[in-house]
Amino acid sequence: VPIDRDAAIFAITDALTDEDLPRAFGVLHLLMTHGTASLAIVGFLASHYRALMQVGAGRAAGQSEDEIAKATRLHPYRVKLMCRQIGRIRTGRIELAMVSLAEADTILKSSRLGDRQVASSRWMEQVLIALSRGQRLRVPQSPAVSRSL
Predict the structure, then answer these.
(1) Contacts 24+ apart (CB under 8 A), 23-27
(2) pLDDT tens-digit map of 11-58
(3) For 70-97, what is each residue's pLDDT tens digit?
């Protein structure tokens, strides 16, 4: 059964907004089990949070959902869902998520995770924990930890 990637990313970000890590982990593991790479998931999440920033800026400017959809070239239904999501996200969390996802992207690209799914899965769980708590990602400092990534 194919996975609807957009629905999965919405499910992860909804779970993170609700601070429901078990649900976020469940969707993460489903994506990874179906062959979605960690780096791709980070990219999908970054794209989603970037779109949330755009939708939030449109709302702050007093634009309607239709106006936001036209300006951002996002599907109107996606804009509607994002407007709901934005209303539940704490101030500053979207920007912090973008910083953490950029850090995760750099770490994943510079690590030796490769196809080591268990290590990659654990690292992605750490990314989701940071996003859920509204914290910056803790970048490993010691060479031993960096090698295990």
Answers:
(1) 24/128, 24/132, 25/125, 25/128
(2) 999 999 999 999 999 999 999 999 898 999 999 999 999 999 999 999
(3) 999 999 999 999 999 998 998 889 999 9
Using a 10 angstrom Cβ sphere, with 0-12 exposed, 13-18 middle and 19 or more buried, the burial of residue 4 is exposed
Q: Say which residues have a Cβ less than 8 Å from residue 49's Cβ, sequence separation at least 6.
A: 13, 94, 97, 98, 101
**Who's near 128: CB < 8 A, 6+ residues apart?**
12, 16, 21, 24, 25, 28
The backbone region for 36, taken as left when phi is positive above 0, alpha when psi lies in -120 to 50, beta otherwise, is beta
Closest CA to 55 of 67, 68, 44, 46: 68
Question: Contact at 8 Å (CB) between 9 and 44?
Answer: yes
Q: Cα–Cα–Cα angle for 6, 34, 83, nearest 5°?
A: 15
User: What is the three-class DSSP state of 40?
Assistant: helix
Look-up of token digits 């090698």 = 147
> Alpha carbon 127 to chain centroid distance?
9
Percent helix, strand and coil across the chain, each to the nearest 5? 75, 0, 25
